[in-house]
Amino acid sequence: MHVDVTSLFLQVSNQHDARAGGRPPAVLRMAELDADLVHILPSSVLPPFWAKLVVGFVSLVCFARSYDGDFVFDDSEAIVNNKDLQAETPLGDLWRHDFWGSRLSSNTSHKSYRPLTVLTFRINYYLSGGFHPVGFHVVNILLHGGVSVLMVDVFSVLFGGLQFTSRGRRVHLAPRASLLAALLFAVHPVHTECVAGVVGRADLLCALFFLLSFLGYCKAFRESNKEGTHSSTFWVLLSILLGAVAMLCKEQGITVLGLNAVFDILVIGKFNVLEIVQKVLHKDKSLENVGLLRNGGLLLRMTLLTAGGAGMLYVRWKIMGTGPPAFTEVDNPASFADSVWVRAINYNYYYSLNAWLLLCPWWLCFDWSMGCIPLIKSVSDCRVIALAALWLCLIGLICQALCSEDSHKRRILTLGLGFLIIPFLPASNLFFRVGFVVAERVLYLPSVGYCVLLTFGFGALSKHTKKKKLIATVVLGILSVNTLRCVIRSGEWRSEEQLFRSALSVCPLNAKVHYNIGKNLADKGNQTAAIRYYREAVRLNPKYVHAMNNLGNILKERNELQEAEELLSLAVQIQPDFAAAWMNLGIVQNSLKRFEAAEQSYRTAIKHRRKYPDCYYNLGRLYADLNRHVDALNAWRNATVLKPEHSLAWNNMIILLDNTGNLAQAEAVGREALELIPNDHSLMFSLANVLGKSQKYKESEALFLKAIKANPNAASYHGNLAVLYHRWGHLDLAKKHYEISLQLDPAASGTKENYGLLRRKLEQMQKKDV
């Protein structure tokens, strides 16, 4: 069957390739490239559908091991502790909050504005019926599979160009190249953080809509030939809209507009930089007739892209409210260097590390900050060789991409470098300071460009060498090793303990790695080991206030109060607005009976964090110790206003009112608390005690039994219920619950004494009956 194929690149600018004799040069060249890869992929190339099926299956196999992993690292803050995922939070708040659930107008906000990503988390939460990580992980794995499948079409455009049949269907002219590149993308281990870490969904969604925007922009050229400018404009506008959606998933998404512009000018328009430079140097009058400068359609598309990008940036800046986020030196030490030269050389070294992670993704780490990569402060540092090598390679590739007389090579290298560099620009520190040194997640989209360049390189090698089987073996080895590395790395992301410990061999000088291991051990109750890692974190970074705070807390619990006070005092001295450290310092000072200093510390904490219910609770405890009962009640009331579910504050109010004889007020507070927290057994217990003293025995009994049902192993619950029965005259029931209480806690002196009184009373009654 004869298929009418139209070469768009030839139609757009046929004056550059007239020497091809009317035959589309792209078609011939791409057939040649696929022929170069015939020894790497079988001659019977899979049809597009089956190629996509293979790529999708391989991508799922690589990361399937992470499906039942926990919420790890940043997942806790972005998901578990993010109230925007819960039904009681209005959907409108998603558009006013950052990625972590904080108000964008707050000075402490991270300014990461990704409402569509948070919306998918919220849907996950609703469908899973809570914070069950399996559903979250499965969505991430499927998203990566979908992006990998879409990459077959994207790579087909990048390698084969935009060739359409008379019916408007795009022809796949480079099936081998697109399949190989898509497989390289699908199995790249640097993607593990995006796929296995739930917060990586921002990058996955951004990539999905980024690629859809690019493919939509490509469709503008197909339709423009058949249906006129209006249809072309529609696809450009749709591409801009998809770019905006990508940006609402992650800020990196806006860069698709720049990529589309480069694609339009250098690829569709076949803008030959070498030719233009030569004409400028020779003052050639034909420069005035360059078709690119007189192309009305191109100017319209560039105007739309520019206006769309400017509009997105303006809206984004307005939403940020108080300006860019404030990062600390430990997040990105190079950006705080006084010398412009030091900043520049370290930024370039970071770029070389990112390039190395794409080339050799064996040393992967969840965090590269806090001393993991020491600053380069002198040209005598041997690491300067890495950035020199990077720029030699980049300059060589850029020269070939812009100046090569081979239009085929220009197109491939231009698009490869475009995908490699343009999506990476927001993470480059060139336009604004970023909050990390190296982050594997930001390489998800740039890896597309890496796969283009690598595939093109394999084709060139295969063409110019006789050892084709060796190249095929190398390619197969890369795919196999990367797949194995993905499986291993996915396993490391399944739990925080494995993830944090895996980083020790990669970044042993990273204080945050030791801090996170210590925190994980402390959460599991292993305080001795946690102290060791916290001390190492502080040794590596003497200004690490969070490590000092956590270490101070553990020492406080172990009654090592003097050292705890020293650490916490140092933490607030380094960071005077560290509210949590001020509160913990107050707790230690209270334990040391330094009440005035403790009150001052609590007040300072509240000054730096006005809505701090836990601090009000601790302040109330201090006032209760000082017998300042009214102040204590006011402090606890403030805690419950700020956090209505603050059970400890409610309980302390009930107990204090009970102990001071204000039974009616204690009962009212107890009933108010249970309305807000109806299933809290400690509140049931406290209110039951008050009701028993008020001789409301029946209601008190019901609350005691409900509390015991919720927590049957609480000795005090059985003991106080026994006291109620004792007063009420139900002596057999009192005896039963005294005995249960003593079985649970044989050392309870009060219960022993009451049980003894009951037994004597029962013996007297028996004697009287006799």
Helices, by number, come to: 34
Which structural class do the helices and strands define? mainly alpha
What is the total tally of β strands? 2
| Fraction in beta strands | under 5%
Which regions have little confidence, pLDDT < 50, spanning 5+ residues?
1-31, 224-228
User: Biggest sheet, open or closed, and with what strands and sense?
Assistant: 2 strands, antiparallel
Strand order within the widest beta sheet: 1-2
How much helix is in the residues?
Answer: 55-70%
Multimerization state: single chain
Q: What is the terminal-to-terminal distance?
A: 115 Å
Give the overall shape, derived from the CA principal axes.
elongated
Mean of residue pLDDT? 87
Rg over CA atoms, rounded to whole Å, is: 34 Å
Membrane topology: Multi-pass membrane protein
Transmembrane segments: 141-161, 202-220, 232-248, 254-277, 298-317, 384-403, 415-436, 442-461
Subcellular location: Endoplasmic reticulum; Membrane
Domain DUF1736: 323-395
Explain this structure to me?
The radius of gyration is 34 Å and the shape is elongated. The protein has a two-stranded antiparallel ribbon. 45% of the residues are buried. Residues 1-31 and 224-228 have low confidence and may be disordered. It contains 34 helices and two strands. α9 (201-227) runs antiparallel to α10 (229-249). By secondary structure, it is mainly alpha-helical. The chain has helices at residues 8-12, 25-36, 48-63, 75-80, 115-128, 133-160, 175-186, 192-196, 201-227, 229-249, 255-268, 273-281, 296-320, 340-359, 384-403, 407-421, 446-464, 468-492, 496-504, 511-523, 527-540, 545-557, 561-574, 579-591, 595-608, 613-625, 629-642, 647-659, 663-676, 681-693, 697-710, 715-728, 731-744, 749-769; strands spanning 5-7, 163-165.
